[in-house]
Specification:
Layout: H1 2-13, H2 16-41, H3 49-53, H4 55-58, H5 62-75, H6 78-81, H7 83-89, H8 94-127, H9 134-165, H10 169-193, H11 196-202, H12 206-212, H13 220-247
């Protein structure tokens, strides 16, 4: 397994895809930072380290959709290029192939998140004025990240299952967006028109829980629920994806 993980990491880290994507996101962060600094320099006392840095918590939901990019980086058109077929034909266990790609895509996601959050918060610290709320800002960011992590892992598992089970990578991305972003809206409508149980299920979806998280600051029971739901969805997505992949004929 270690050799397979090393090979997958080598394949991803030598591609420009990862670095171009990361640079594009960091450029957008820089634009946001510039806007915050400009607002502060115009004398807006409401724009401080606290108000700018805690935007991280409000944007945690973006991490759900970012998993589509990291899964795409790792999966890399394998059905189209027949590389997945070659891996299986070479004798690699399908469990190793599936879990290896999931592990590497998760690693890429977490490393990218660390870089993006660290640089943004550091930029806020350097450019913006400080006050007595600095400690509260760091605590809120830590709270948000702690609650978001298991939900990001769930999204990673769901997205990777889509990439393994849908042959066309573009279609796999659309299916992932549908499951993560569109399905909650459908359940919301069904909860209003059909039965409240649909709304109960919607409240346990990663995107909805991430939207709710900032409004329940420091409610640690909700963070516990995030971990329970996130890890549960991760295990369920791996079980479904791996079972279907084991039975699938690759050609």
């Amino acid at each position: 397994m270690r050799n397979y993980l090393a090979a997958e990491c080598y394949k991803v880290f030598r591609r420009k895809y990862l670095y171009i994507t990361l640079l594009a996101v960091l450029a957008l962060e820089g634009l946001l930072l510039w806007g915050c600094w400009l607002t502060s320099s115009w004398g807006n006392e409401g724009m401080s380290f606290y108000s700018a840095s805690t935007l991280v918590v409000a944007m945690l939901g973006i991490g759900v959709y970012a998993t589509i990019l990291t899964c795409d980086m790792v999966f890399s058109e394998q059905y189209k290029q027949n590389t997945l077929k070659n891996e299986v034909a070479y004798g690699l266990p399908r469990v190793r192939v599936y879990l290896g790609k999931l592990a590497v895509s998760t690693l890429i996601s977490l490393l990218s998140a660390v870089v993006m959050v660290t640089l943004y918060v550091a930029g806020c610290w350097v450019l913006l004025p400080h006050d007595a709320q600095d400690g509260a800002a760091m605590a809120l960011i830590g709270y948000g990240l702690l609650g978001a992590l298991p939900l990001w892992l769930a999204a990673q598992g769901i997205t990777m299952a889509c990439y393994f089970l849908v042959r066309n990578t573009t279609l796999a991305a659309f299916v992932s967006v549908g499951l993560l972003g569109v399905l909650p809206g459908i359940f919301q409508v069904m909860g209003l028109l059909v039965h409240p149980a649909f709304e109960t299920v919607r409240q346990l979806m990663p995107t909805v829980m991430l939207e709710t998280l900032p409004y329940l600051a420091f409610q640690w029971d909700y963070v516990g629920r995030c971990w329970l739901v996130g890890l549960g969805l991760l295990l369920l997505s791996v079980a479904v994806g791996l079972t279907a992949f084991e039975k699938r004929e690759i050609h």
